[in-house]
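An instance as discussed:

___
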Amino acid sequence: MFLVIPAVDVRRGRCVRLFRGSTEIETVFDEDPVEAACKWESEGAKFLHVVDLDGAFTGQPENFNVIKRVIKSVKIPVEVGGGIRESITAQRYLEVGAERIVLGTRALTDPKWLRSIIQKMGERIVVGVDARRGKATTSGWTEYTTFSVVEAVRFLCEKGVKRIIYTDISRDGTLSGPNFAQIEKVARASRVPVIASGGVGSVEDVIKISKLEPLGVEGVIIGMALYKGAVDLKEAIRRVENGSEQNI
């Protein structure tokens, strides 16, 4: 089943969206992220993607209690990322009900730790490959690694990662359309399921990404397009599900 996954990004306790990952261009959409999460659940979301943006920049959880409230307020599974660079932090989120943990920076810079946490948590670990200009980035998208996107994906698969989220930073928050060619490239390079993120601006974008499901793309994360009304969540889910039925 292809998943249409709403994003709830938390900064300073509020639900916000950034433009291309820049903290200088922030739009606040809800003073309480719980309200946003409950709205997306009520409109049919089957999964939520929640990010501690402050944590992504500082390297430690900054909005733990807010995100805990989000997890406790919905019945659907929640994956959490942003500033999770210690096993104990991941464990804390799992203990309060998170379904999956999204790793970033340390997963790409500390292979030994990555193997260790995968051994402990297995399928519940997801790694984000966040890319700009063809290079994987870390530290809240502020620093470049030596990995190309494809190299990063292959590296993670070799280390035993079970699922990857690919984000094109240059498209994120722009509504300008995803980087379809790169999403396909990532999917072909990956031996595990891929979730696409960044740039969705219409339901047609969602449908086009869903057509990559045979390559291993199992879902798409949508943020700005939902909050600005460019994508109607109910319609996107309905059309994806109808398309899947027609392909059976």
In short: Residues 116 and 155 are 15 Å apart (CA to CA). The mean pLDDT is 93. The domain at 3-247 is CATH 3.20.20.70 (TIM Barrel). The chain has one domain: 3-247.
